[in-house]
């Protein structure tokens, strides 16, 4: 099953290289990807897809396209184009860091360390957190963290390993600890965002930007938490991160609907028009694959997690993948970007495509993503 799905991905990605040229896919409307010149937070996912396709197939057409994206990311960093956010890890882990992991290219390594410095600049020492969006002092976002940042922290952990500079790891750990304390609720659900006083770091309130309501559990946010805490455990071996990833994963899997692919928010009213988010199931599948590598064979949660992984991936492949749609640009149908905002609420999203492929190639060949050196 996995091999057939990957072959479909390879065919679509070859076609997309010609379709997209030097532009980057973001989200689609009516099945056609919106393209940009590398100025969105999502652009690393296209680069990551190309690198995964190259690793799996060895076809140089994927490597050539991937290298062009890395050069684009070099130009983006040099021109500081729309980097005033925390998603630097999404951008550079899957582009230049991927090149370093695969080829041990020194220039790619140095570019990735420079990107880690850009992320580090978002550290707010007064509040003791990495600010998610906007400039320092921003009246709306100056005190905001969001759960997505857990997937950006691996860039800092990796930079510590490469340089030996403790500041990268120290800041990543402080932020991960704060995320665990304030974004994860007692019932193992999660807030999307949390606000602090920028002057003293005093906790203010939880909230959401993408979810159904402030107190609800946005499924993609829960997915970021599952994978993100598993990655923090990989780097630090702090058992609290492993426990938190397991708790979030159990909450997610216990709420799978009949076809095993989640709705966009666990608390959204369910009716015929309720949107799904296939990307949340894809992220969670990739995250559980990472989580399982850290569990003992007799861990009491292993069988439940393995079953949930199989259910989720089979649900994606059988009912949401665009297999049999040769002209489709995306790999998964029914992803949602912003249901609340009405922006691509039910279409292809490039991060869903990436995590779907990452999970597939890990299942089929043991090829991991680009969140840490192998």
From TrEMBL:
Keyword Hydrolase part of the UniProt annotation: yes
InterPro entries the UniProt entry points to: 6-hairpin_glycosidase_sf, 6hp_glycosidase-like_sf, Glyco_hydro_88, UG_Glycosaminoglycan_Hydrolase
GO-annotated molecular function: hydrolase activity
Gene3D superfamilies in the cross-refs: 1.50.10.10
UniProt-listed SUPFAM superfamilies: Six-hairpin glycosidases (SSF48208)
Keyword set, alphabetical order: Hydrolase
UniProt record similarity statement: Belongs to the glycosyl hydrolase 88 family.
Protein name: Glycoside hydrolase family 88 protein
Taxonomy of the source species: Bacteria, Bacillati, Bacillota, Bacilli, Bacillales
